[in-house]
């Protein structure tokens, strides 16, 4: 998950819908084309009472028990995924840097 972005997942009519909750520069949160709220709790409370942007009103929370680590997919935590992606990005960046240095020395750029 990108920093400053949350998601709410709602099951409705045998389908799963993902809604992006974006943190705004002023600290508020909102779904795209929606209104701003002080935080994600207020956003969910509002949408639980009013059909205003979601396909249905959220009714049953699916909270993780305390201490449960968020999973990216079975067997891989979100933290592990983030670490893998950061390492891959570093490797790719280093390869690009090394390639640029080699090309520079070969072609005397």
Explained architecture:
The protein is α+β, with helices and mostly antiparallel strands and 109 residues long. It has two domains: 63 residues, SHC Adaptor Protein, CATH 3.30.505.10; 41 residues. The chain contains two helices and five strands; from the N terminus they run βββαββα. The strands form two sheets. It has a three-stranded antiparallel beta sheet, with no helix packed on it. β4 and β5 form a beta hairpin. The chain is extended and about 50 Å long. The relative contact order is 0.09.
Helix content: 25-40%
Q: Average pLDDT value?
A: 78
What is the CATH fold-level name of the largest domain?
A: SHC Adaptor Protein
Strand order of the largest sheet: 1-2-3
The CATH class name of the largest domain reads Alpha Beta
The tally of domains stands at 2
Characterize the main sheet. Answer: 3 strands, antiparallel
Order of helices and strands: EEEHEEH
Question: What key phrases describe this protein's structure?
Answer:
109 residues; alpha+beta; SHC Adaptor Protein; 2 domains; three-stranded antiparallel beta sheet; two-stranded antiparallel sheet; 2 helices; 37% helix; 22% strand
What is the gist of this entry?
With 109 residues, the chain is of the alpha+beta class. It contains two helices and five strands; from the N terminus they run E-E-E-H-E-E-H.
């Amino acid at each position: 998950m990108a920093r400053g972005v949350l998601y709410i997942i709602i099951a409705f009519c045998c389908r799963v819908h993902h809604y992006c909750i974006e943190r705004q520069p002023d600290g508020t949160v909102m779904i795209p084309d929606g209104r701003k709220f002080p935080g994600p709790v207020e956003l969910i409370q509002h949408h639980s009472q009013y059909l205003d942007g979601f396909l249905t009103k959220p009714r049953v929370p699916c909270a993780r028990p305390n201490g449960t680590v968020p999973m990216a997919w079975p067997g891989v935590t979100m933290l592990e995924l983030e670490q893998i992606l950061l390492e891959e990005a570093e490797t790719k960046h280093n390869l690009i840097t090394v390639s640029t240095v080699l090309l520079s020395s070969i072609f005397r750029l």
